[in-house]
Amino acid sequence: MTTEYPQEGTGMELRQLEYFLAVAEELNFSRAAVRLSMTQPPLSAQIRRLEEEMDVLLFERTTRQVRLTAAGRLFQQSARRLLAQLRDDVLDAQRAARGEVGRLALGFVPSATIEILPPLLREFRERHSGVYLDLHELTPPQQVEGLRDGWLDCACFYLPFADEPPFGDRGLRYAAMSREPLMAALPPGHPLVSQRSIRVADLADEPFVLVGGHAGQGLRQTVMEQCRRGGFVPRAVQEAVLVQTIAGLVASGVGVALVPASVRHIQRAGVTYRALRHNPLHVEMGLVWSAGNVNPALAGLIDVAVLVGHDVLTRRNA
What we know:
CATH architecture of the largest domain: 3-Layer(aba) Sandwich
Radius of gyration: 32 Å
Distance between the termini: 61 Å
Number of helices: 11
Largest sheet: 8 strands, mixed
Shape: rod-shaped
CATH topology of the largest domain: D-Maltodextrin-Binding Protein, domain 2
Helix content: 40-55%
Structural class: alpha/beta
């Protein structure tokens, strides 16, 4: 099958341009035929067909020489540009198929910016500079919806997203990027501030600031399970979407909270963070994607996420 070059009024084929350029550069049908690994008669026939289709004389032929006409010289320039552009387009398509260029839409929860997202973005841009990352700050449900609908390629939030159905049944896959223990966030003047670590049960009678269930199911589930193991159900007096907001509310004296250990890096005057005794639960943040996603650039981001996640876990366990 031949590739057609669309031009009004002609059925010009791509190979005819290659034949024309070979003759135009050699100005000799025999040498051009050798260069093209073909015999002279079919080459001459193709050039005549091209001229007929264009209704333009491209070569002046005599028994002694072949010369380009004025129209032929102009067409030579156009043909060179066209073939050069086509070669570039083919290379771009090949790079896109290999995931070297393109676009990825990445959703994330704001808390990912504390520790995970910065090294992920730096490493990916260093390794895949031809891929543009389109970033969207969203809640986990919004991200899952985006993955299902196809307008997001990947997402970053605390796991698990929900108890039922499991990710595999949803057609989603994930790579864990961080695993960190819960810590207690205490307001100014709290009596437990004087202790280096506390028991979860020590917070049983305290007012709690919780992450909203719809906005952060994975984190909320872990917090609720941590309290259950301490023998109580937390008395929620306030909910918030962002862990940064939770820290601010604790600093304002609204209540206590259980937060991922990385939140202690947020500078909030008045908030004191204390480790939990007796094997605190850990919360995971992961990169999530649809198993049916066919974007070639996605594999590169997954590889970088695994690498960055390994580095984060190694530093935390050191």
